[in-house]
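Dear colleagues,

I hope this message finds you well. In preparation for our joint manuscript, I am sending the Histidine ammonia-lyase (Macrococcus carouselicus) sequence together with its predicted structure, so that both groups work from identical material. I would be grateful if you could confirm receipt.
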Amino acid sequence: MKILLTGQQLTIEDIKYFLAQQGEVEIAEEAMVRVRKSRAIVERIISNQETVYGITTGFGLFSDVLIEKNQYNQLQVNLIRSHACGMGRPFEQNVALVMMILRLNTLLKGHSGATEELVRQLEFFINERIIPVVPSQGSLGASGDLAPLSHLALALIGEGRVYYKDEERDSQDVLKELNRPAVQLQAKEGLALINGTQPMTAQGIISYIEAESIGYAAEWVAALTHQSLNGITDAYDRHVHEARNFKEQVEVAARMLDWLDGSQLTTRQGEIRVQDAYSLRCIPQIHGASFQVFNYVREKLEFEMNAATDNPLIFEEGDETLVISGGNFHGQPIAFALDFLKIGMSELANVAERRIERLVNPQLNGDLPPFLSPEPGLQSGAMIMQYAAASLVSENKTLAHPASVDSIPSSANQEDHVSMGTIASRHGYQILENVRNVIAIEAVIALQAAEYKGIDKLSPKTREKYDELRQIVPSITEDRQFHIDIKNVADYLKEQAYQ
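The corresponding structure tokens are as follows:
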């Protein structure tokens, strides 16, 4: 499977399919024409020795320093080396791979002045799965994600570290093994590589893909819980949700009824009680609101995936050439979106933890055993799984603090407002992993509760899920190391995101 990159039409679904199918990228010919035209403009600037930021001048506070013509190329190499100040744990390989796709896609818009050689080098790295080791810390999210992207660029010129066939190695050694020369940066190209929001956006895309999948998984897990607590289905009636106008809420309610269709464990209002607690009754409102967030985030990410985010940008207006210094590298729109994603994800875990409490608390769970223990007192059962879930949702409340409301000046106050979007992206994935673990905990407990209630009474669709999950989570007949079950279900949920 190949993704045709045009610089204009890349979608999250393309990325998801690319990752699931171990795909390749291909550059559209019309995009390559734009690349050549924009490079010709850079060559003309060089030939005429015009004063243009980042091509014939220094960077940041040094933008007024003119560079000698014979040092234009060295300027770009110096830029990459000096800006490679990333720290901390590297981004996951999938994130760095998507980062390269996004960087290539933005160069193909024809506003960056990159050479065909650089574009082809990125294409080669992507298709050969030579994945740069990119530290995840050290970016302010404005002037581009300078430090992370510099590490990506180092790999292209044979000076960085890469993952190749799941082994971390020197880029230069891998290129020699593949008989591929390192790219020689030309004027403007270092700047074209590192001015941009690709790290925060790539991490945001991965978080979005997995968050959306978790949102759907949270529904069938909640449906198991609902049946185990003899929940009332009236609250999911379409009339209730159509009266409020939010389509995501309507859709969640419809999916919940579909999951519960045919169940012998659900009730109608007044049969056992008149109404359920909010964690059951308001699933469409709460989960639906998270899907509203996801839809907003998807739109903003797809805008950015097809955006020109470096500086300066090159335009042709008829016979006129424009080279304009602007600020498209500023990550504020994506920082806001990723902070919003953090909140939307967190609430899925918050309400799941409340359902977990209802399943294990003997004052709330009807006729189920305390903590679903096979021998209450001797065996603790699910007691501490609820503790663990409570810990994770509490941690999420700290991580969900918006990174985008912070700023700190840099570059001698030339760059005096920054987005902190990359911090938002990193914290977002931490939240995602916590959410996935909370949903996994609810699944482990709901499976056991359903077993006590009678799995033959489950709805057909949730019975299928029960049977599937029992292949990785055995019935709880005695206390055991439940962290193994939680991890196994969390791994299953992550894999489902790329099915």
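For the figure legend, we might mention the following. The longest strand covers residues 313-317. The domain at 204-496 is CATH 1.20.200.10 (Fumarase C; Chain A, domain 2).

With kind regards,
E.M.
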